[in-house]
C-alpha cells in the first residue's frame, strides 16, 4: 500500500534536494480539475500543473487525439522525417498570432528551450548580441533562461556564471511604486551605463509576469517598448509560456496589445497549456526574422514530438468547440467575485487582479502595502492542502496566491475551491 509519507521518503533518498515540490502529495489519477492521491484522497486542482492544464486533466478530446497518433507514429525526429501534425500546428499558430505580417513557427519541448531559441533567432536576424529582460521576470532554468530570469533566490543561486550580454531593467508595477516612466528610465540607464542600443538584439518580457507575481505589463509601457525597439532596430519578444493558450481570456495575452495599441511582438514563445499536459513549446515570429538562422541551426531530437503536436491541435479544437476563451473570462470573473467577498472580511488581501482567468491575490500584514506577508501566504497554501485544495504561491516577495485552475472546471468546483480558500483565511487569521 502506497502512502504519501512513504513515497516522500523514497523521493528524498533517491532524488536531489534542489528539485522542489510544492506539496507532499503523490498523485494516482486526475480528471479535469480534480486529482486523487495515492491514498485515495480527492483534491481540487487550482494549480493546473503550473498553467499547463487550461483544458483540464486528460480532456477526452486530447486523450483521443493522442491515442490515435500513438497508433500511427510516435517519433521520427522532425529533422529526419516530417509529419503533417507539426506543419498543421505551425499553420494554425501563425494565423492565431497578432500582427499584420507573415509569420513562421517551430517547436521545441520546454518553455526554457523556446526562450533559448527566441534569443538564437533574434541574434541571428539582428547580428547583435545583447538582450534586455526585467526584474521579477522568469524565463526558465537553462543557462540563458536563468540569465534572463530576474530573480536570484532560488533560481540563480550557485549556478553562475551565466551567458553574457543580458541586462535587467525595472518592470513597472504601480502597486509597488514603479511607474512606466521609471521602467523606461531604467532602460535608458542601461543604454547609458552598460550597453549601446545598437548592440541590443531583443527586449523580452512576459505580458503578465508569472512566477514574479502576476503583474500585468501596462499598455503604455508596452507601447513605449515597441517605440523604443522600432527606434533602435531591437526585436520585441513576448514570453507567453505562462500567459498563452487562453489563460488571460485571449489565445495570446499580446492580442490585447494589438487591439489597444496596435503593438505586435516580433517573436512569441509558448509552452505549458499549448500541449495540454504533453511536452511542447513553440516559437512564433515574423517570417523574415524566423528565417535568419542557417539550415541546421534550429531543432532538437524530440522537438515537436508527434504526440505533443496532436495534443496541441486538440487543445486548439477544444478551445473552439467549448468557447474556452469566453469561459476564461467567466472563470476569472467568478473567482474575482468570490475573492472580493473574502477580502471584505480579511484586510490581509491588499490586491485582487488579473486578466481573464490569470487571477492572483496579494497578501500584506494588516493590508499595509509596505509589509508583504509571505508567512501568511505560506500558511494559507499549507492549510488549503489540508482542506483538499491545491494552491500555488508566487511573487518576488512570496506573498501572492495565484490561481491557474482549468478553464474547463465547473462552476460547482470553482465555488467549492473558493469556499475552502475562504475557510483558510479564517483558520490562519
Ligand atoms: N517562461 C515563463 C514565462 C514561464 O512561466 C516558465 C515556466 N514557469 C518558463 C519560461 C520555463 O518553462 P519550462 O519550465 O517549461 O522550461
Automatic annotation (TrEMBL):
Gene3D superfamilies: Aspartate Aminotransferase, domain 1, Type I PLP-dependent aspartate aminotransferase-like (Major domain). Its cofactor is pyridoxal 5'-phosphate. Belongs to the class-III pyridoxal-phosphate-dependent aminotransferase family. Its EC number is 2.6.1.22, 2.6.1.19. The lineage of its organism: Bacteria, Pseudomonadati, Pseudomonadota, Betaproteobacteria, Burkholderiales. The keyword Transferase applies. SUPFAM superfamilies: PLP-dependent transferases. PROSITE patterns: AA_TRANSFER_CLASS_3 (PS00600). It comes from the Bacteria. The keyword Transferase applies. One of its GO terms (biological process) is gamma-aminobutyric acid metabolic process. Keywords: Aminotransferase, Pyridoxal phosphate, Transferase. NCBIfam families: GABAtrnsam. One of its GO terms (molecular function) is 4-aminobutyrate:2-oxoglutarate transaminase activity. PANTHER family: AMINOTRANSFERASE CLASS III (PTHR11986), LEUCINE_METHIONINE RACEMASE (PTHR11986:SF58). Pfam families: Aminotran_3. This is 4-aminobutyrate aminotransferase/(S)-3-amino-2-methylpropionate transaminase.
